[in-house]
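Justification of computing resources. Each target in the renewal requires a structure prediction run like the one illustrated here; the chain below, 125 residues long, is used simply to show the kind of job we budget for.
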Amino acid sequence: MDHATPLEQALHAARALVIADLVAGQVADADVVSLVEDSVTHRRWWVEQWPEGVAYLAGLVAQDVQDALLEKYGRWPLCPVCSHGDPHALDVEPELGPDPHWVCAKAGVKVASVGALGPVFGAGR
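Resulting structure tokens:
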């Protein structure tokens, strides 16, 4: 049996976390999942150049997909915290660091870890 390298394991984990959030937000169509794959391909190269960045993959893939979605479809994920004012997207924090999470910058609150938007959006209920 072929065992995945630590890099491949980290890439698979980042992919799974972001896809879980896309599923929770009901936007995991094939073309959107392709954006995840594009990011994973790019980040594979990136972390090969900077191996210390492996712990940052989940947050970076989430940001890449968020940016790509903004260009093609609009803001994602929309903030579930603020019920007034213009709709706005959550941000990934830290921008470059381990343990990435979705935050509402307007309210200044952590909403969920990357990969854990399901309960926030009521997925699975």
